[in-house]
Amino acid sequence: MTVLKTSMRNFLAHKGRMALSAVAVLLSVAFVCGTLVFTDTMNTTFDKLFAASSADVTVSPKKAGEADEMPENGKPDSLPASVVDRVQKADGVEQAEGGVSSLSVTVVDGDNKNMGSETGAPTIAGNWTRNDLRSMEIASGHAPRGPTEVMVDADTADKHGLKIGDELRTIAVTGDIKAKISGIAAFTVTNPGAAVVFYDTATAQQKLLGAPDVFTHISVAAETGVADTQLKKNVAAALGGAEAFKIQTQDEAAAANKDSMGSFLDVMKYAMLGFAGIAFLVGIFLIVNTFSMLVAQRTREIGLMRAIGSSRKQVNRSVLVEAVLLGIVGSLLGVGAGIGLAIGLMKLMGAMGMELSTKDLTIAWTTPAIGLVLGVVVTVLAAYVPARRAGKVSPMAALRDAGTPADAKSSWIRAGIGLVLTGSGAAALWATTQADKATEGSLFLGLGVVLTLIGFIVIGPLLAGIVVRALSVVVLRMFGPVGRLAERNALRNPRRTGATGAALMIGLALVACLSVVGSSMVASATTELDKSVGADFIVQSSNPGQLIVPQAAKALETAPGIEHITNYKVVSATLTAPDGSKEDEGVVAADPTYKDDLRRETVSGDLADAYGEDAMSVGDDYATRHKIKVGDEMTVAFKGGETAKLKVAAITSDETNVDKGAMYTHTRTAEKYVPADKMPQNMIMFAKAEDGKADEAYAALKSSLAEYPTYKVQNQADFKQDLKDQIGQLLNIVYGLLALAIIVAVLGVVNTLALSVVERTREIGLMRAIGLSRRQLRRMIRLESVVIALFGALLGLGLGMGWGTSAQKLLALEGLNVLEIPWPTILTVFVASAFVGLFAALVPAFRAGRMNVLNAIATDG
C-alpha cells in the first residue's frame, strides 16, 4: 500500500511531465482500437447485407464464380428456366423464383456520366424479384413493367440527383439498354456503395444474358418449419443430385460472399494494425526517455527513500506502478479516441462513396480489452529499464546534486552489440542484392531490415556523438556561443539523444524506403514502356477487371487517322506440354499487329509466325521448365471451346515486366476453337496512328468513346503519368498512416526538451544571471531541438535508402531494373525535419524563457 501511495503521489506530482507520454499511448491505442472497430463495423455491414439478400436456398450453375468475379465473355453463367419448375416441385419449397444478376455492366445517365461507384464497389444489373424485398423496398414509383423502364437504388439516385422519369443507359456486352426510371428502391440494410438497377425479367434475360428463358440463379423460399439444410437436400434430390449445380443455404451463400470480401478486409485490417505497431514502437522511445529523465531528476528523492529503508525492489516497483497508471490512463483515453477515429473513417469512406452507417457500429468486448492490455504492457515494458536503474540508486546519491554517473562499461558493451547487429544487417542487405531468386532474397531483405533497425537503435548513443558533432559544424557553429551551448546540451546525454532521434528515425526510414521503391518502379516501368511499346495509344477500362464491350470496340475501329487497331483477349485454357504436364494458363489471342505494338524479344523462332494458322508462342521460362523447342506441338483445351493442337512457332524472352510469360496466338485461331458466345471480350486494345496524324487520331479515339465513360484512351505520356499517379496515391496513403508514428516521434522531442528544461532549471537560472538573454535561451533550446531532429532524419533517411536500394535489387529479378533515388523527396523530408525540430521546441523554449532567475537558481533540480 505504501508503494501504491508513493507511486500515486509521484504520478500526480509529475502529471504535466507524463502528459505527452500519455498522448503517445493514447494515439497508438486509438489506432489499434479504431482499426478493429472500423473493420468489425465493415464486417457487420456486409454480414447483414449478405444475410438479408440471400434466399433460404440459392441454386446457381456449377461453374459460376464468386459474387465479384466478372465472366470473360461479359455474360454470367446461366441455367435454363426449366430448372425453376424442377426446384418448385421439391418438398418444402414455398416458392422458387428465377433471378438475373450481372456485374459486367456500366450505367450512365443522359450526359454519359458514370453512375457507378468510384471506390471499387460493383455496379449490378438484374431483374426485380420478390427475393429483393428481403433487403429493399420500393420508396417511390413502381417496379419496371417493360423494356423501357428501369428501377434504381435510392443511394445512387441521391448521389447523382436522379429522379423518376430520368433516362439511364445500361451498357452490357449484348448491347445498350435505354430506359426511363420508373421507381426508386431503398435498401432496408446498409448498402456499402454498390449501384443497382433493375429491369423486368424478360428484358434482363435478353439484354444481360443474351437469351430468353435463362437465369443466373434461382432463389428458393422454404415453407414454414422447413430448415434451410433440409430444403437444400430436398432441392438437390429434385435436381437429381448437386453435380451440375451449386446449391447453397442462406448461411453458405452469405459466407461465400463474405469470403470474396475477406481478403480485401484482411489486407486493410492488418496493414492498419502494422502502422499502429510502428506507432507503438516509436512510443516506446518516448516512454523510456520520460521515465529515464524522471528517475534522473528524482535521484536525491530515491536516495533518501533507500536511506530510510526502502529496498531496491520497492523502488523498482514504485516506478513500474507509475507506468501502469500511465498505461491505464492513456489506454482508456485511447479506446474512446479509437471509437471516434472509427466513426471518422466511416464518414471519410462515405464521402468517397462507400457508405457505412453508424447504426452498424460494432464494438466487440475484445477491442477495449486489447487496447488496454497493449497500452499497459507496452508502457510497463518501456519503463522496465528506467525502473531497474532507479532500483540501483544508492543511499549515498541523496548527498549528491547530480545523478549517478553513467556505466562506461555497459556503454561500450552496448556499442559493441550495436555494431555487430548493424554489421550483420548490412551483410543480409548485401546478400539480398546478390540473390538469384526473389523468395530467397526476400528472406535476406526482411532479416536485414530488422537487424539494421535494431542495430541503429542500440548504437544510437555512439552515432549521436559522431553525427551531432558533424551536424553542429554545419548548422550550429554559425550561431556562435548559443550554438555551441546547444551542441553541448545535445551531446550531454548521448543515450537520451539517441533514443529521441531513433523515434523519428523509424518513420522516416520507412518513408525513404518506400520512396525509393516507388520511384524505381515508375522509372523501371517507363523505361520498359519506351523500349517495348510501339503502339501510339492504349485503351482500357478505368475499372480493374472490366473488359471492353463489343460496341465500344467497334466505335474505336471507325475513328479516322488510325493505321491499325489491335485486339487483345485472354482466353483461359488447359495446356498440355510435350512432356505430358498440364497447367491452367491464359493464352493471349491478339491480332498480328500486336507484334508491332509490343516489341517482344524472342529466344528462338519469329513472333510473326506465332500468328500463323494453328500456331502459338510460349515464354522461355515455361519452355525451359518443360523442355519445349520451336516446332513442338502443344495441346490447348480452350475453356468453353474445343481442344486444339498448336505448333510452337516462337519462344519469347521473359526478361521483361510487360507481358512477362505471355503466350500468344492469332485471334482467328482462338475464334476457330471457341464459340462466339464464349469468346472473351478485349481486355485491352492498342492503336497506331497514321504518319503525321497522332493528334488527330488521339482526339478521334477519345471522341469515339464519349458514350462509354469507363474506358480511357491514353497515349504513352498519359499511360506513364497514370502509372506514376497510381503509385503516388498508394504512397500518399502509406505516408498518411506513417504520419501517426512521426507525430508520436515529435511528441518525443517535445517531451525530451520539456523534461530537459526542468532538469537544467538551476543551470538555466545561472546562465540567465551571467547575462544570457531570454531570446538567446530560447534560440539555444530551438537549436538543440533542430539538431536532434536532423540527427534522427539523417539516420532514418540513410537507413531507408539502404533498405530501398536492396529492395529494388530484389525487384530487378522481376524485371524492374532501374534504381532511382527520389532526391527531391529525400531533401524535402530532411529540410522539413528541421522545421519539425523548431515546432517541437516552441513550448519548451517558451517555458524556459519565462523562468524566474532567482527561483531557478534556488531550485534543487
UniProtKB/TrEMBL annotation:
Residues 275-395, 737-852 form the ABC3 transporter permease C-terminal domain. It is found in: Cell membrane. One of its GO terms (cellular component) is plasma membrane. Pfam families: FtsX (PF02687), MacB_PCD (PF12704). Belongs to the ABC-4 integral membrane protein family. Residues 19-237, 500-700 form the MacB-like periplasmic core domain. The chain crosses the membrane at residues 270-296, 319-343, 363-385, 412-431, 443-476, 497-517, 733-758, 783-803, 823-846. This is FtsX-like permease family protein. Residues 60-80, 107-127 are annotated as: Disordered. It is a multi-pass membrane protein. GO terms for molecular function: transmembrane transporter activity. InterPro entries: ABC3_permease_C, MacB_PCD, Macrolide_Exporter_MacB. It comes from the Bacteria. Keywords: Cell membrane, Membrane, Transmembrane, Transmembrane helix.
